[in-house]
Design a protein that fits this description.
By secondary structure, the chain is mainly beta. The chain has three helices and 34 strands. About 1% of the residues have low confidence.
Length: 377
């Protein structure tokens, strides 16, 4: 018997009762599971098999049970009673209770059984012994955290020529415990979000996107350069973020599905509370938006004179270049208008920078005289 799974079973009987097989006579069971439900029998009651007979093919390998198992005698989370058989690379994470003899987290009663690489959750099973009767080899139980850890998958796969275990999906189908590789192997991919957009109103930002197909929910990350990244989950295709501090924010979003997650998709930088400013000069920047070269014209107010230095910053406040009008290049000039104010012009080439938001500052004598936001397409 290979790759068989049962979900949310309800079963009961007097003797020889199993979640999948009541009486396994010289039967090889591989990569099987019983996930959830309840099982009760008076004796020889097992979450997977009630009674396992001897034989060269009497093997249980790579199986698990999370179905509640209860009874009187010979009650086991995986096998009620095993006789001259093999049980390997399996685990139990289900409640196991009994009133009489032979109550074990994995096997109720055993007679000359070869068992290795088998594990149980001591808290969930409520048991301290892997085998209830004739326990020739004692095993320690594991915690829920240990059994949900990715390292447990490697532990379950040890000794197998071909691994059969993998970690549960991001949206769990087995409460975070390992699952078999063949489970939902034909699952549809998790598509990434598309058409990301953002709008800003005062100190709030609304992020929007088209949902990825099959998505259960979305993970949104945002923050400013050099600060902690904030993470929020939402089942909607939109997220409003309030009470943002002034600054330039990056943001990105990914889809999370039952079977995994997509890669993050980056949205355009959002700018909160940073506007154009005329502090001691008036400045024009055109064309804006631009695909390459922008012309910058700065007029000092109130008849002021002096040389202006133009500084280019990215959206995260990093200085990219500095242009001094005097002697900078053939595209820069310095003249005086009829009011005696200096009018200084230059060109800044953004063609080799990525698309996004940039800022040009006019600085004179170490003071910022004007700020303009430039959008590079």
């Amino acid at each position: 018997m290979y790759e068989v799974g049962l979900v949310n079973i309800t079963a009961s009987g007097r003797n020889y009762t199993g979640g999948m097989v009541a009486y396994a006579e010289n039967t090889y069971m591989r990569d099987c599971y019983v996930n959830g439900g309840t099982l009760f029998a008076l004796s020889y009651c097992g979450g997977l098999v009630g009674y396992q007979t001897e034989g060269t093919n009497s093997i249980i390998s790579g199986c698990y049970n999370t179905c509640t198992v209860s009874g009187n005698h010979y009650v086991g989370g995986l096998v009620g009673f095993s006789n001259y058989a093999t049980v390997r690379n399996s685990y139990v994470a289900a409640s196991v209770t009994g009133q009489g003899d032979g109550i074990g987290a994995i096997i109720g009663g055993a007679n000359e059984v070869l068992m290795y690489h088998c594990y149980f959750n001591d808290c969930i099973t409520g048991q301290t012994s892997a085998i209830g009767e004739n326990n020739f080899k004692d095993y320690e139980g594991m915690t829920t955290a240990q059994m949900r850890d990715s390292a447990f998958v490697a532990t379950l796969n040890q000794g197998l020529t071909v691994p059969v275990w993998k970690s549960d999906y991001v949206v769990p189908i087995n409460n975070g415990f390992p699952i078999l590789i063949w489970q939902y192997s034909d699952a549809e991919p998790c598509d990434a979000p598309s058409n990301l957009s953002a709008s800003v109103n005062d100190n709030s930002a609304t992020l929007s996107w088209n949902g990825g197909e099959n998505a259960s929910y979305y993970v949104v990350e945002y923050g400013t350069s050099g600060s902690d990244t904030h993470t929020e989950n939402t089942s909607n295709h939109q997220l409003m973020i309030n009470n943002l501090q002034n600054g330039n924010y990056f943001w990105r979003v990914k889809s999370v599905c039952s079977f995994g997650e997509s890669n993050f998709v980056n949205g355009n930088t959002i700018t909160v509370g940073i506007e154009d400013h005329n502090l001691g000069a008036s400045m024009k920047v055109y064309p804006n938006p631009t695909t390459g070269v922008v012309k910058v014209e700065c007029t000092m107010n109130n008849g002021q004179a002096g040389t202006v230095e133009f500084q280019l910053f990215d959206a995260f406040g990093r200085l990219l270049r500095t242009t001094d009008v005097v002697g900078a290049n053939n595209y820069s000039s310095l003249r005086t208008d009829p009011h005696g104010s200096s009018v200084q012009t230059t060109q800044i080439n953004l063609s080799h920078y990525a698309s996004g938001i940039y800022f040009i500052k006019a600085v004179a004598d170490g003071k910022v005289m004007a700020v303009r936001k430039v959008i590079k397409n």
